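Annex B. Sample input.
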Amino acid sequence: MKFKIINIKGLVFVTCLMALSMMMITSCSDDDEKFETGYGYVQFKLFKSSSYLKSTQIDNNQMQYLDDAEKMKIILINSEDGSEVTQTLGLNKIADDAEEGLRSDNLQLMAGDYTIVGFYIYSVNGQQLELVYSGEPDQQTILTVTTGGLSVQDLQIQAVERGRINFSLSKKILPNTNSANNADKFMFSQIAYASITIKDLFTKDTQFLEYLPFSYEEQVVEDGYLTAVAKADTLILLRAGNYQVLSYSIYDKNKSTLDADNLIDETIFEISDNQNTEADVPVNIYQSAAYIQDYIALRQIWEALDGPDWNYQGEGYTNGINWDFDKDIDFWGDQPGVGLNDNGRVITLNLGSFGGRGMVPDAIGQLEELKILTLGTHSDLIGNNMIEQWEGEPTASQKLAWRNDFYERFIKKDIKTQFSEPLQFAFELQGKAVENTASETTQPSISTKDVVPGNLSNGITSVSKEISKLSKLQQLFIANGKFIDFEDGTDFSAMDDLTDVEFYNCPSMKTLPEALFTMPNIELLNLSNNPQIAAADIENGLDQLAQSPTAGKLQILYLRNNNLTTLPQSVRNFKKLGKLDCAYNKLVSIPAFGEDIKLVQLTMDYNQITEIPNIDGYFCGYDDVEDFSFAHNKLKEFPNIFSANSLYTMESVDFSFNEIEGFQDEENFKGIKVATLSLAGNRLKTFPGILFNTDSYVNALTLSGNGIETFPEEALEGENTYCLESLDLTYNKLTELPDNFNAVLLPYLYGIDLSHNRFDYFPKGPLNISRLTVFALRSQHDADGNKIMREWPTGIYTCPSLRALYVGDNDLRKIDDTISPNIYIFEIIDNPNISIDLTDICPYIKAGYYTLIYDPTQDIRGCDYLNLN
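Annex B, continued. Sample output.
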């Protein structure tokens, strides 16, 4: 037997190195414990000691962190035979935090009593154990191991007492300073990280806690008052004692510095062993910060415009809502109608629907980052004001959508809606959607979707000249209020970014504002719905605008519903003009724009224009024309201002509801190239063959309501006649079609409507056209109103593509012909003497594949499924 002498703090122990004792020294985990006869287990729990008297420290230091302990070596003496037991055991946390204690793996020992000699604590560095602490019990400690049992023994470690600190950042609002460094101060909500310097008040040592992550939280405190804090996402472990926060640095999500400052208020906190402590660090927020100055300006604007009585009316926010200042000052920008950028600066301001009254004060000049100012818009009173739905800075697509908004709401029309209902169905079958936005044939001067002049949403009367400081302003909208003018001295000449301007429905504004003519770069100008301005005043204003710096920049000009009687010749200075709306004025004469002004959308409807002038044959350039409309005027002739030889096809041209009897300069008429042409509601007595004889390209043509009596044989002669697909000849006085109205000249005719004419026979020419899909021949009456069409075109079922046939309100009699199931819309209503057998198509009617429009009193046989009397 061999012995080894070990000295721990002057005590001598004998180590038995017998093979038998080595076999006894084994370690078992909780998962694989297997009791053997005569054996039990012991587990050691290690806790911090409150006494330092018996500690044995490495380098004369206490153990810094229990979390460093990963292994322990325990030394025991068997009381029965004096043999020494030495074993290394793994250590685990008792709780989530190692500072609250550690427990060892279970050690299997022979039953009996054992004296604890001492223990060593190690950390693991790769494959090496590094000693971090050694100790022994303060007094003799004997543990008893029982057979099949588990003994637990507590051990004390002389470790530094530590607790955890949870920091929060709160706002310390400080009054204005003159420091330029405060101009671009951060927003509290931008804080994502903070570095905090603290001092141990006992040792005087300082400690720098770097890049602690924080989360922003808004809180409602007493009486609904709103504030915010930033909470640290992690607990920080510190030595027990008293500390003072000296300074802080705060950072955004990219760890870019937002601010660094010393605390103004003394912040002291105490750390207790194994306790969590809360500490609040006040972050300095200066009222001189630019974004807070914006918010102060908002309150001043609110107060000046009778803010306490505001009552929002619209769809963007809850009706009746008002601004709320019962919150921290850095929250004042969070208001309905206010848009902020990432730095908290006000970039959009919408005041129009809150019912404010009075003059916008000087405080407006503080909002130096403002890009959109809205004191009412054309959509305030009809809902869906998209500006109210923008959050932050609007995108390019949003601005473009807004530019198109007035056109889409009030101006845009689809002249396909002027075609008959069967032909609109034909358009749908062709995949050409019919947008029923505004059929101008019956529209009054102001539609129900428009804002009626004088109907107001606010009482804003003027704007301070301080608005001239808003050098980043891009859009200015003033509408539906009592606006008269800007304050004297207002000058927009330095506002190069201002491109979109609207003075809409301002019944108190008697002349165009002088400040308008100082704006250098207007691209969109909406002056609609101001009929209170005298004709001479608005015409002089337009002339002045045409002489201003903005003349060469203007692209969109809306002048709807005013008192214009003429347009000044100087409008030719608007070289970039693409959209012009002058509908619902009193225009008698207009100038020609000339070939170099290429209008895309032109609306001159509901005026008294008798002539369209031209310069070298051009009223304007036609390269990009989408919609060109002179409906509801007093034109006597179709103007010779287009050309069938143009490289470009116009989308739609509308000369409906004029007094057109013929074509200007017939001998030299140049024709037209257009997808859809409306000449409905005019005074043409003969089918205008001049269109096709001049090789015009027309895809869809309506001549409804002209009183046309004759359709000459040569009217369809032309190289491009074949392009015609839809023809509306309803409400005329035709009695026959020319013999050449057939598949040779019109091979692509898709739909034709001859309803409300004077045919006493069924014109069969169109039935030979292989693409004909819709054919309407309703209501053929003579001059006295008598129904005159009785003939049924035998063999109509052989027409290969016919899908819809409308022959209602005639005097059809017995029909012995086969009824084709391919014609799935068949209208025979109001033919009181008809007799027809529908045996062949009844299964299709029953299956829902066939639409029969009929009277229950008619003589219809072969289909009991129908509701017949």
